[in-house]
Amino acid sequence: MQGRLLRVNLSTRKTQVEEIPEQYLRDFLGGSGLAAKYLYDEIPAGSEVLGAENKLFFSIGPLNGGYFPTSGRYNVSCRSPLTGIWLDSSSSGKFGYYMGRAGYMAIIIEGQSDKPVYLYINNDTVEIRDASWLWGKTISESIQLIEKECQVKGSTAAIGPSGEKLVPMACIINDGGRAAGRGGAGALMGSKKLKAIFVSGDGKFEPADPEAWRQVIKEVTGKVAEHPVTNNLKTYGTGVAMAVAGQTGDAPTKNWQLGNWEGYGKISGITMANTILRKHTPECHVCPIQCARYVEIEEGPYAMKGSGPEYETLGSFGSLVLNDDLESIAYMNLLCNEYGVDTISSGSSIAFAMEAYEKGLLSKEDLGGIDLRWGNTEAILAVLRLILKQEGIGKLLGQGVRKAAQVIGGGSEEFAIHVKGLELPMHDPRAFFGFGATYATSPRGACHCHGYLGAFEERNPVPEAGINDIPERHATSGKGILAKAVQDLSTAVHSAIICAFTTYSLSASDLARAINAATGFSYTGEDILKVGERIFNLQRAFNNRFGISRADDTLPPRVLSSTIGGPVEGLVPNLAEQMQEYYEARGWDPDGKPSRAKLEELGLDYVIGELHG
What we know:
Elements: E1 3-9, E2 14-20, H1 22-28, H2 31-42, E3 56-59, E4 74-79, E5 86-91, H3 95-102, E6 106-110, E7 117-122, E8 125-130, H4 139-150, E9 155-158, H5 161-164, E10 172-174, E11 178-180, H6 185-191, E12 194-200, H7 210-226, H8 228-236, H9 240-243, H10 245-248, H11 269-274, E13 294-297, E14 304-307, H12 311-316, H13 326-339, H14 343-358, H15 377-389, H16 394-397, H17 401-408, E15 418-419, E16 422-423, H18 435-441, H19 479-496, H20 508-519, H21 525-545, H22 575-586, H23 596-601, H24 605-612
Parallel strand pairs: 1-6, 7-12
Antiparallel strand pairs: 1-2, 3-4, 3-6, 4-5, 7-8, 9-10, 9-12, 10-11, 13-14, 15-16
């Protein structure tokens, strides 16, 4: 298998194509794994997050560019403008498919332009084009204008006005609302004056073993399409989880305080399907799941049509702030997609501000006259607009809850809900204990994508890791070991690169067969977990470089105390026991660094000098 890397220097306006060494592909697959190798080697300690030395790494994997289910995805990696540590952010749609067709496994963006530009890629034609005429425009408008100018079929990944203004929670949007959403990669794009990347190509995907490839696609597509969870996702989208939040206790409520709320059903995927959902052409390349929503509100203050809110957005602009108006959430989702801002971080910042207002730490005057009471839909929307436009209190809240708490003080740190600077996603570790160790140790901060334990507790074993019993979600024993195994599998999936929802039905062995057919490699399921472990440890070493230690592997105190009411009241994960088990399973030193022995075992010897002297 061969892979090409396109290196683009925006300072010198030079581009060059490099061959990716085969050993890199064997050891790191592609996607976030390949990014870890290149960015660990090329981003020095002491570099500025929004400086020229930080690099954007767009990448796909061995399964992209053809017709493997959910293989339209791509990954963006860098040092996060929000957290200052490792960031990889995955998006669906068709961008990854066209990257593969153009013949590139990776695009690395270096330096900084002195004026707005966009990158045009069509097979071997690469041009850095003027984007001054696009600066300040919303994402959908920018994409329409770029694709009209390019006049060939392809896909565009772009930033909006928030990314241009370097908002640390700014994201990158492609294909009708698909987002590389978390951690602020859009701000880094903005600092480089890179408005967008357009990619097109007509190259053919050529698997190493065409017959095995056809067979594995047939089998995998059937497994994914027939699974009951993915069937539910197709019918009701990810918002179906909100419909059962009253039974699971999974949806964080009133800034992680309450355990129940009468509004869950009003904003669920089922309600969406019965009210504002419209038929649409699937936005994601060859996806049998088709969980993406397209909604339309014909009249009223929230009139809109476009990509509908996912579960995370229903939580962050719904239960987290006690807003049960589904139409308003859909409208806020649209605004975030147009300006290019992460819905989880922005909703979490508003919830933080609501509690600060309730406690008297923020006044109505501080908020520009906004009465930011819980559930006040108009106030929530008003503060969101301030974040998007970087006006008033929005300048501070757009920095994320960690920074906002540092400025506001007065004990607000106690309800600034984040890990390592990244706001928690909308899944509660008190509902699924395994999220405890996962959130505490995820390389990008609190993250359910780097090990979605909700898909494994009470559901799936991981036989390739020797885990054959399905653990109860409120058990503590074994959760550190399970977290490690699921993180390794998820890391491999992000490097392959396919949708995390495939892990409901596909195993590490299934993934190995697909990669072998595509590449000619000879992985086993156990090998796939080892590749994931290698990548995870290299990402950890990257974070160690920027000051992360064992002391940072924890959860906010509020999440380690009971909810008020609800089905999980009184149930709290024993994080200390999980972490002891986890560290032993990982082979990490007590200070939070991968041990010398572990690095040698994983073939990461070149990291030892920096970490251990």
